[in-house]
Amino acid sequence: MPIQYNEFYNEQTGLTVGIKKQLFHEVTPYQTVEVFETDTWGNLMTIDGMVMLSEKDEFVYHEMMAHMPLLTHPKPETVLIIGGGDGGTAREVLKHPSVKHVDMVEIDEAVVRASKLHMPAVGDFDNPKLHVKYENGLTFVDGPREVYDVIIIDGSDPVGPAVDLFKRDFYEKCHTCLKADGVLVSQTESPFVEHYHDSIRSVQRAIDSLFPIAKLFLTWIPLYPTGMWSMSIASKQRDPLSAEVLEIIDTRIATFADTLKYYNKDVHAAAYALPGFVKQMLESE
């Protein structure tokens, strides 16, 4: 009988992936980190039994988390990534020639170690522009003031150490860490999963009240619950759908366009088209 990994997002409904063997297992002070070799998706990392990424579909999440905000900013030089210990978001951020310094604040060293060991192509950890800090992202933003051009909140699901990444107090602190033309993005779960709705609304309402421009966009990640995934973006000055942004995307990504598998200008614009049920979810109490 084949071994299977199952992640249930509602009662007995969820995801099943065939497993060849377990490659990594560690119970840390924060969570349980595991890596599996699968029969279809390459190596798969989970945290507390929830999928974080697979080698074969990680590019969707990481390209959207990085390029949507960085191309909204006129010239991103300093970037803060909260979470993102697998290194994929940092890899995409570092493709931008204007970026000079990236701080990646990951609470759990085991996530970075597991990724380096079993998903070495995902991260770009040897890049001298990348500075990995093993700290709590919630308290890290207590210190810096107006330091970053872009903040990317690449946390896990709203349970355990990541639950506060969905609260207003955290976004108030992030706002103060951004420069006058700063941009922020956060992953905000699947609109198809009802018990995530409060978390999605919490983030969207927080950034709506703090930033002049705040939007939700969607992407499609096969191994995440239901496949549909949302991300929230906020900007102090520049609308990600402005003609200015859309006109320069192709020029700005010209040096690395051949490395992209998902993101492009058409995807950038289309991602903000929300289905009716998502709009209704955002407006409901």
UniProtKB/TrEMBL annotation:
Q: Which InterPro entries match?
A: PABS, PABS_CS, SAM-dependent_MTases_sf, Spermi_synthase, Spermidine_synt_N, Spermidine_synt_N_sf
Instruction: Please report the stretch or stretches of sequence annotated as the PABS domain.
Output: 2-236
| Transmembrane keyword on record | no
Enzyme class comes to transferase
Give the record's pathway: Amine and polyamine biosynthesis; spermidine biosynthesis; spermidine from putrescine: step 1/1
Query: Where in the sequence is the active site?
Result: D154
GO MF terms listed in the record are:
spermidine synthase activity
In this chain, S-methyl-5'-thioadenosine is annotated as bound at: Q31, E106, N136, G137, P161
What EC numbers are recorded for this enzyme? 2.5.1.16
Per the record, what are the reactions this protein catalyses? S-adenosyl 3-(methylsulfanyl)propylamine + putrescine = S-methyl-5'-thioadenosine + spermidine + H(+)
Q: Which domain of life is it from?
A: Bacteria
Stated name of the protein: Polyamine aminopropyltransferase
Q: List the source organism.
A: Cyclonatronum proteinivorum
